[in-house]
Amino acid sequence: MSEGSNENRPGWAVYPTHAGEPATGGVLGRGERKIDGRGRITGTAVFTDDIQLPRMLHAKFVRSTEAHARILGVDLSAALEIPGVVGYALGEELPKKYGVIPVAQDETAMAIGKVRYIGEPVVCIAALDEETALRAVRAVKVSYERIDAVLTIEDALDPRKPHIHEGSRKPSNILRRVFQEYGDVDRGFADADIIVEDTYSYPGSTHVPLEAHVAVANPEPDGKLTLWSSTQNPHYVHRDVAHVLGMREQDIRLIKPAIGAGYGGKCDPFCTDILAAYLARKLGRPVKIALEREEVFYTHRGRHPTRMWLKMGFKKDGSITAVDFKAWADGGAYASYGVVTSYYLGVFMPLPYTLENYRFESHRLYTNKPPCGPKRGHGAIQPRLALEMHIDRAAQRLGLNPAELRRANCIEPDTETCNGLKVTSVGMKQCIDAVVQASGYEQRRGTLGFGRGLGLAASAYMCGALHPVYQNELSQSSVQLKVDRSGEVTLFSGTADCGQGSIHMLAAVCAERLGIEPSDVRVIEGDTALTPVDLGSYSSRVTFMAGNACIAASDRVRAKLAEAVAAKLGVSAESLVFRGGKVYVADAQERGVSFVDAVWLAEERFGPIGEVGGYKPHKIGSRFRRQSVGPSPAYSFTAQVAEVAVDVETGILTVDKIWVAHDCGRAINRTIVEGQIEGCVYMGVGEALYEEQRYRGGLVSAPSLLEYKVPTIHETPEIETFIVETHDPNGPFGAKEAGEGPQLSTVPAIANALHDAVGIWFTRPPFTPESVLTALARAERSKS
Amino acid sequence: MSDEVVLTVQVNGERVRRLIPASRTLLDLLREDLRLTGSKHGCDVGDCGACTVRVDGLPRLACITLAAEVQGASVQTIEGCGSKEAYIVDALDKHVASQCGYCTPGIVLCLASLFDDQADADEAAIREALGSNICRCTGYTKILAAAREAAASRSSA
After folding, report:
1. Which CATH superfamily is domain A48-147+213-290 in?
2. Chain A positions in Cβ-Cβ contact with residue B148 (cut-off 8 Å)
3. DSSP code per residue over A346-400
4. Which residues lie across from B48 on neighbouring strands?
5. Residue extent(s) of CATH 1.10.150.120 domains in chain B
6. Looking at the domain that runs over B82-156, which CATH code has it been given?
7. Is the pLDDT of residue A419 over 80?
8. Percent of chain A with pLDDT over 90
9. Looking at the complex, does the CB of residue B57 fall below 8 Å from at least one CB of chain A?
10. Which of B31, B40, B136 sits opposite A208 (nearest CB)?
11. Are strands A225-229 and A252-255 parallel, antiparallel or unpaired?
12. B80 touches chain A (CB under 8 A)
């Protein structure tokens, strides 16, 4: 593992990072309370909306009522007469385009000249209180001249339709087309014994974090600015707010308070952040912008509705000879992370099954609807449904056991896929075995009677992207530690815990190396004035990358403590063990000092103790230059079995139970890992049963939680969770991700179970009562 | 017709007397006026349960309750939970049943109300009590495990 190692750079994570080591600190792998659990449970954790500042104004947006139109005029006169209205901003005041992906910055803070979706912000008005701001925005009159709207995939591909982004480099409504081919696909099909080919359609859905997007900005007397934002990615918000406002980044202090979850929905910089910051400076007063639930549906950045065509060739023994895949993703009015989506739709298909010949073509399209973006399992969820259903369909035609077909095709550890993904640890077979055995899949499948069924699916996902979204050679995660004579360890990190437990993860990793308890570590995160940069909570990168940075920082502290204690005891530093709040000679616990005394000794010897550590994936030389999006330092693996029941009278599908096994490399905290897996399954069940962001024309037809159904405790199945540990050679203590990967195989497991139940392949979620009844009736007709 | 109301209410055992607009919601009274921010805005129309408080012991959605409606009543928010509810907080903490934590205060109050009323609440009763609290993070598995444990510790106490 010396390839491309950072060993020569002090402060960088060194490979291997204790992956194979026993957890000598005694912390790893326990199932324990989060260090920040109680604050969240007892309501004392401060979320952005809980912040109230003296003289604070509240701002609201006037939003477009047209899907695609030129703005002819904005009449603010009635609004500005309302007592309590303090100021406003128009789109033209903030003309700089921004966006997380540098090659696709097509967004402005509010519409300028034309609107591109219903719900797009047009004007922002600040008032003394929220109610007045609301009255004011209702009094604004915007006149529009309609433009032919681009609402569907067909529209977006139609060259006669107007371009949503005029004057952009590419004069069409295709944001990005990706074409990649590996091996000899046509030859692979020629060698196949059977071909499975079909189309699939995956709906768009939205994240529904319970906390809406909120920003609070405070202009500082020295001309600087403090901005609190409910963001998953403080670093990108920091960069883009500075860019749009024409400020220096160092003059903005961005603070991420507690976040009421994101699931990918808070990865972009939003109009809330930019307008709160801008109006605070313009009006010289603190400004809060808190979105209402309805506005969150327009803000969206959810799953791309995706139409797919998949052709696979199989030999009689079930081996895969070729895969050809095409996808069209309906991306809404702005790019968001859409360029990345176009790659993620295709690049993970060669996992987890051995595949030599692979071709894919994807399109990420612009339409006049709220922008899509990254939702948990970004871009990889949709093709996984097609692939896993194809595997079951092939097994059926070949008379093979679907579990066995999957096992036989599993990639091996330390291999490279046909598209250049370097795979290290692989627990795929263990995952399949765990759920197949626990569910009795092999004995019970096909025996439950009409209306009941079992389905299996498997999947793989990334642990952070090898390449940062904007080109740089800096650390992707960094951690700073302050240790002082009181024995207090304070850990500073730019990460953004949105509920996944990254605060606890950092404390546990640090505690493991220093032989103390996680609760002895105070974690300060997501504050640009205090914490070193971390790229954020996306692409399942935090445990892997920030965890490695944390080990690097912790080991530098540990080395100083060890040297000081060794000198005092007259032993070698290597002979010392850090455990249980003590630093002592291995095999001679009585020869040692307390952790606090060790810090004291180290400060005597070295002066004040503070260390930093960074992480950047080592360069994995890909054979393919075009492979800039997709490669990851490691991949996680999941298998699940779903048991479902269909009421053939009403068409209601019930998911009774999910067995899920996930290879997370190594569980730093077992309970948190289980929680992440269960949360993924929950979100997958929602997408299987009901969740869809539906439109009437360009209008979101269900912008409320009453109409947009998410599973409650009543509809959520029993979930039995298995953790598979493979100790990845590059992960922190061998850890990989757990927060997104497990969602990939939930919907296909349910779809395959639905086939076992009623003998029909359902190729378009959600599997609503209407779709089930329609399919059953069609099957009945074709029988008679 | 007056659009302002003099409200007298007990909040977490303390007497509160305020002149408030008649349109003030209980949630805004708690969050904005009394700075009790543990009750959360989730949807503002009674769909999600993040604002749940107890009014005279029973769970109530503060976002769709007018403050004037609780005239003379006793309101308990998450800030008013202490040793009496510690077994619930502890069980949720132990099972890491709170991920982002936005829904959790509401869940604590629903469970407190349930167990006060029904010390031997079974799983069906727990599910019923939490049926209108949306948690988007956990898949409810850890919440149920915590609630079962809380029920057991309560009935054995």
Report:
1. Aldehyde oxidase/xanthine dehydrogenase, a/b hammerhead (3.90.1170.50)
2. none
3. HHTTTSSB--S-EEEEEEEE--SSSPP---SSTTTHHHHHHHHHHHHHHHHHHT-
4. none
5. 82-156
6. 1.10.150.120
7. yes
8. 91
9. no
10. B136
11. parallel
12. no
B97 CA: distance to closest CA in chain A (Å): 8
> By the CB < 8 Å criterion, does A716 face chain B?
yes
Which residues in chain B touch residue A264, judged by CB atoms under 8 angstroms apart? none
- Identity of the residue in A209, A293, A671 whose CB atom sits nearest the CB atom of B96: A671
Place A15 in a pLDDT band, splitting at 50, 70 and 90. Answer: very low
CB distance B62 to B121 below 8 Å:
no
Helix, strand, coil shares, percent, chain A, to 5: 30, 25, 45
B62 neighbors B26 (Cβ within 8 angstroms): yes
The backbone torsions φ and ψ at residue A530, rounded to the nearest 5 degrees and listed phi first, read -115, -35
Contact residues, chain B, for A657 at CB < 8 Å? none
What CATH class is the domain A306-467+623-783? alpha beta
In this prediction, residues A332-340 reach a mean pLDDT of: 97
Kindly state whether B75 is in contact with chain A, defined as any CB-CB distance less than 8 angstroms.
Answer: no
Nearest to residue A300, comparing CAs of A209, A176, A201, A203?
A209
CA distance A713 to chain B (A): 6
C-beta separation of A670 from A491 below 8 A:
no
DSSP notation for B21-51: ETT-BHHHIIIIIS--TTS--S-SSSSS-TT
The CATH 3.10.20.30 domain(s) of chain B lie at 4-79
Q: Is the pLDDT of residue A638 over 90?
A: yes
Q: Does B77 touch chain A (CB under 8 A)?
A: yes
The secondary structure of A478-508 as a DSSP string is: EEEEEE-TT--EEEEE----SSS-HHHHHHH
Domains A306-467+623-783 and A474-615 agree in fold:
yes
**Would you say residue A705 has pLDDT above 60?**
yes
CATH no. for A474-615: 3.30.365.10
Peptide bond into A732 cis (omega under 30): no
Mode of pairing for the β-strands spanning A358-365 and A320-330: parallel
Q: CB–CB of B100 and A37 under 8 A? A: no
A5 pLDDT above the threshold of 60 = no
Give the domain ranges of chain A: 48-147+213-290, 306-467+623-783, 474-615
Residue A3 pLDDT grade (very low, low, confident, very high; cuts 50, 70, 90): very low
Between A14-28, A187-201, A688-702, the lowest mean confidence (pLDDT) is in A14-28
- Nearest CA to B40 among A94, A258, A597? A258
| Section A196-220 average pLDDT | 98
Q: Residue A54, by phi and psi: left (phi above 0), alpha (psi -120 to 50) or beta?
A: beta
Cβ-defined contact of A712 to B131 (cutoff 8 Å): yes
> A37 and chain B: CB distance < 8 Å anywhere?
yes
The Cα–Cα gap between A696 and A719 comes to 35
Helices (H), A59-177: 77-80, 130-138, 153-157
Pairing outcome for strands A194-202 and A174-182:
unpaired
pLDDT surpasses 80 at A484:
yes
Which of 3.40.50.620, 3.40.50.2300, 3.10.20.30, 3.90.1150.10 would CATH assign to domain B4-79?
3.10.20.30
